[in-house]
Amino acid sequence: MSSSAKSSAELVQSFDNTINFDAEQLKFVMFYIVLLLALLTVLLLYLGNGPIPIPATQVISSVLPFIPWPVDWQASAGDAAVIQTIRLPRALMALMVGAGLAVSGAAMQGLFRNPLADPGLLGVSGGAALAAVAWIVFGGSIAQVIPLLQHQYSLALFAFVGSAVASLSVFYIADRQGSSVAILLLTGIAINAITGALTGLIVYAADDSQLRSFTFWTMGSLANGSWENLRLTAPVILCTTIICPFFAKGLNALLLGEAEAQHLGFSPRQLKIQIIVLVSLSVGAAVAFCGMIGFVGLVVPHLVRLAIGPDHTKLLPACALLGGSLLLLADLLARSIVAPAELPIGLLTASLGGPFFLWLISRQVGRSLQ
Amino acid sequence: MSLCAKNISLQLGGNKILSDVSINLEQGQVTALLGCNGAGKSSLLKIMAGDLHASSGTVSLDGKALTDYRPVELAKRRAVLTQKSTLSFAFPVYQVVEMGAAHRALARAEKRRLIQLLLRLTGTEQLTLRDYTSLSGGEQQRVHFARTLAQLWTQASDMEPILILDEPVAALDFAWQQRVLEITQWLAHKKQWSVLVVLHDMNQAAMYADNIYLLKDGSCLCQGTPNNTLVQEHLNKAFGVLSHVQQHPLLSERPHIIPIRADLPPIEHYLE
Hints:
The structure holds two protein chains of two kinds. Chain A is mainly alpha-helical. Chain A is built from 15 helices and no strands. By secondary structure, chain B is an alpha/beta fold. Chain B is globular, with a radius of gyration of 19 Å. The interface between A and B is medium-sized, with 27 and 39 residues.
């Protein structure tokens, strides 16, 4: 009897210290503010840096010319043009692509219930690479037969279609075998192997200059960041990035298991289709114009989870902000390290992301051993 | 009416798992599924929850086939606690409980109160901000129990909530085994919920169940009150355990089972 009296006394006591939900909420708000500030800082640095350095005040006045800034903030017409026509669209492209890749990565990791998943698992990049190399090698002869295809967007279009076909075939094959996520993963691996082999086959047939342009394509570049290209990619990536967080609760539930998600009122199959379509569109648009940029989709969600936990309602928007800023920063480095030349950005993200990821893994191993 | 399964048979890869089982959940009662390992309890429970489709037979809720409901509609009516959840992401405990209320239109303050109440009820309040993956198995099970309750707790509805629990106390300590079953029984008796629960401990079934289905090799051996089902003959037939059944020394309307030994050859027999 005495023990039950004691436990009820404890119970009464514990009623007094309520959970501080507001402090938790504040933590998330602070994190978002920090992310936004970081993004703005990197953006200012990015726009000001280059062959012609431009001070921050003048950067601000040229980005927002419709505000009456003080006279000494005004940039010269030439500087303003550099920012408005060259640096700003490229910066926006970096933000878009970074955000798209990071959000897609986070969504894939949720879908596969595995923090090591990335959009590549769906065959998106493999399909895009196959189609891209096919265009680079055979494009000339194809365009002779169908002159309509002789267009500056042909490579992008091919890559986009390739990524869509690969990811949709992964989904359809997996879906016929039952709805399990494990089968989706295995199918993705198989499709990736097939596209990889076919890509190799075409590369084997390529001549030196074709090989060179394909190699550069696989290393990624934001040099295509013009207003013209942005008009095509931005709507796709922006829409998918905004829509993705609406599936956040479903992704959370899916982490409990597919049956559990169903019990909680979500349809795992529907959710899978929606996420796959969003990710294919987003990554397809990014890969089409910027080639393969690795590790953003893998590392950014990890970083955000370390800071604010795995809740997708908060994770996905934060990934968009951090992914954008990091890719912007990477492109800033890519442009300045070997200036006036520039490094392929995929090299930079992989060479910085790789070691970081190793550190992350060793840290996780250490934690699970404790 | 509520949830009932009629003439359920299930075949998986040539193995007959269930044959012609019918089961009815009664409002305000705890219905327990008992049986030895592989008797088909979990399969039957999965069919009742809508996770598995029976080879033949129907499951209906309020007279309408379970497959005709959308997941959201079902989520508002019934909650399921599965044996093992795959959650391997480091959610803080309160967010796991919050997932249970994903489809409830609750104001933020109400939702917080609900989460807090359930954390207290399941003794996990001091774990609120802890990383779920760092909890012990029993603590995790209590968090999932809280999450399952969050789905239906004080839901404003004319229809009674349905709670399906697959071995809810398997990982729990002595105290929490009692407590979780007390809560379950309280929900049925005091709040008129319909409860279906898979149990392994005969005395827990005797104490907390109102209606028992005893499964043996995929079919129903017997069904009824604990006093009618938990008798020596049935226990021997279903489990191969010799036991002595007496009236519970404190609760006269409930049986009390004293297991004597498994009805198997002596251990030495296997050494030769």
